[in-house]
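User: Batch of two.

Assistant: Item 1 of 2:
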Amino acid sequence: MRIVGLPDDILLQVVLYLSIQDVLSFKQTCRVLHAFGSTDYLWHRLAERSDLLLNISSNTVITELPADELQRVVIDAIRLELNWRRSSPRIKRTMSLNIANDALFEHLHFVNGGKWLLVVQGHPRRFEERVYTQIYFWDLHVLNEPRCVIRFELIGKHRASAVTLHDQEESATLVVALNDASADFFEVRTFSLTGEFTTLSHVGALPSVAKRIELPPSSGPLRAISVTSVSVCGHVLAATVVIFAPDQAATSHIVVARTDNGSAHWMQREPYKPIHSALTRLHRNNIIIFGHNTEGYACHVYELPPSLLYPCSRSHMSLSDCDFPDNLLEWGPLVAHSTCVMDKLFNLFPEPSTIPSASGEILAFMLMAESCAYLMRFHLSARTTSSSSGKRFVRPITVKIRADTSVRLVGVGISGRRAVWMEHNLETTRSQLMKLEALQDDTTDGEYTQISSGVLLPPDPPLPFSTDACQGLAFDEASGRLCIGLWGGSLYLVDFS
């Protein structure tokens, strides 16, 4: 019997044994098999079982995509994977973004698969005793025609920032933690993404929806407060606040707030084996806490309290209204917890700005040591285990760093399967951008425990700049895009897809 004569259900079972590349070749044999190999159901099954890094939104369900669109996404992922694994990956295109000043880049961050870009610059003004923070938000859906959809300026020194999209990417909410020389506070701005701002010779008007959420004021010389990281998801923000007191160790606390009505609370002391010097991220309806505790390097996932998910009737309450530390919000149930038991990690802390937003089921970041780095990948969902506690034990992926080099910039993909970092040679004073890919190990139930690394951009790449001039970095693993900010204020996009 010829293969085209097989019943569809049997033919489907045969085709599912093929790789995606084989299916693409299989489609080219005849019209009948081309039609069968283009069905939605087949490509949904192929995409679901594939370990390719697909450039689709985290809230997109694969089964909702038509076969032709899904096939295009899969082919792009295959091309990027092949290019990334080359000893010298090819640069597909390079583009300069028009930035109006030469200020330092405080934060560069890709959103939603490299389709949007947040740019934050610190801009001290001459003859003024204050610092300004300038915000740009770029639309990169059409990379050859990037659009700056919003640009505005805030008074204060940048501490941390985060952005979330709403209404099928028609609007966005930006949270910026600032310091105005007297206290740290949050500026919350909501703006439309459907307009276009093209004139960069002056500062654009502020977004129409704006809120200021203040942190508790310092009580004289007894206490100083600093925001070290912030995360936003939907209408909820969470931040890590470090409190310094004389003759005492610094302590970290978690603050949460609603971005729509300004209600805010301090969180209680963590109930499950508290994490010291904790950082936080939001993921769907959960809050993630990670850092050191008595067991090792840990990651705890809790449900958000219902009072945060469902806004209260009070229109506004700043953090100054909370009687810290008496008015505290209780944690929700513990959803998942993971621990890495490794003494070498004890004094290592990730740079908060290098930690990507939590997406999918992984929180990934890198811990830098003197002669190596550790790629951490924590699972965010619970699973059934032989242990009554259901705890996951995580083994970090070790990345060797040359002894005569230092690491200045780090970019980690949201799944932790690809990462980049700027390696500076202390003897030659030259810098090069390194790349990494985490690979599955068949002996560890498909866990990513092996790596492949190499040079992504040498000190003098075929680009209009040298890697020695890099001052800021953003990286998106699914699109293969880099955003590189240079000393002097120039900003470039480098695409490897």
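Item 2 of 2:
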Amino acid sequence: MASSFVASLFSAAAAPPGARPRRSPSSVHLWSHDHARHQQQPRRLVAAAAKRRYKGTAKREAALAELIERKVAEAMEACDGQPEEEGCRVAWDEVEEVSQAKADLRRRIAEAPGDPLEPFCAHNPTADDCAVVYVDD
């Protein structure tokens, strides 16, 4: 008997004439959550992704960067006080060549769908250079 009385309190038929139907608590919650979301400033999604590369490619890139630093130091030493000397020009040419080699490697990495070592590693998966590393760019 009490359960039918409780049910009649919550039924639409029990509402007085002309009254708006009540929202259930879940719809009120959804409305208030949705309303509050639209009043907030938009959120920015920042995705940090690391590229998958083979160890050999990462080592080669690091070796070229180190070689550039060493060649720049040698060129500065060769040109110390005598910038018009032939040895100075040769030293800076070496810096340019190594820098171009690194730029070419970076270009091949950016343009290729996979790693430049992909063909080698397909046939030699156990090679040390074929270990997978993740590099942030």
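The chain has five helices and two strands.
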